[in-house]
Design goal:
It contains twelve helices and twelve strands. By secondary structure, the protein is an alpha/beta fold. It holds the Pfam family Metallophos.
Length: about 375
Amino acid sequence: FVPMMWASLLCFAVFSVMYVYSTDVPLACELASRHQQCRVDETGRQCLPDLSDNRRLVAIGDIHGSYAGLLELLYQAKVTSSPESCSWREQGPNKEDGLVLVQVGDLVDRGPDAWGAFDCLRTLQKEAEQYNSKVVRLVGNHDIWWLNGQFRDRNASADTLPVLRQTVTTMIQDIHAGTLVMAYTHTRHDIPLLFVHAGIRPTFYKYLQKTLHPDKANVVLSPAEITAYANAQLQQDFGTCTALPCQDKKSLAKELYEAGPDRGGSGIGGPLWTDFSMLEEAATQNKEPKHFIQVVGHTMAFCYSPRQINVHPPSHIAECSAGLVRASHHLQSVCVDGGLYLGARAYLELNQDAHFIAHERYVGDKKKVEYETYQQRDLTSVACKSM
């Protein structure tokens, strides 16, 4: 009995340590560790059922009209049954066999088939429950441009007036219905992940603190609170739009919708406009909010020469030293915009072992899909190897 008692106490002690946020252990490392731990009951003798959502999670970055690229990623990530169609792959009979798919916004502009990509994700979202799965669609700054009648980056040959009208009208309907949102929070083992197009930088986080809690100083905002605010604002601003532009730009909250100095703007840099370098800098300087992990897009991987940037897509993509999927210090934030419309292929997976895995293909050829060239990097192992 004595050895069993000590074993129970030890297990309880480990649980107690593991389930309190630590300033020394990166959240990604704690997440992976918690997945392996026995969460014991109050007696310290039995493991409690794992009620966490352990479904595989797949995050896809900016699409920019690359329907063909999206189809390839969905097939490679085992979401769809074919690289030529947008049909669900059988995920298994149990909930844990399903997956959560998050696309972080910027479906439109540049590429040849924005509507195809938009409609594909919309269809998958409608059918997801049948496959024990969930699809989350976020807006990006380019999507907001379309809602405000700004089409300067559209694909002139593909994005005709009827296509623009159809896409924008459907966007408005989906925002009103709450199926197209600005932010999403996902929790695994009590560790929250915040998905937003570009990211929450420290200055915007402070703005939210003052906006949501004007009478209190330095309130710790939960990702759920941030998500609720962002999504409510999006619905208020665009969910009942009847004509373009949906809003006079001057009437929109500058802090929420405008770019910061890092992107040539005059705002503080809202969640649709934060360059990933801002999140990297904040993480390195220990300024970034540390009680949640951010997954974002918006900032394309710098793997291209200036000449290649203007080609759709380039015949060859050089390998990034940091990868197409990039992580900030201690994996506090991850950027998944690999440059899909230019031919790069990348997505992020949070697997069932609670590890963040980057899937990347560096060499692109629009006429030949080479699935065997995908590489995998375990971002969690890299971030936690010295811990």
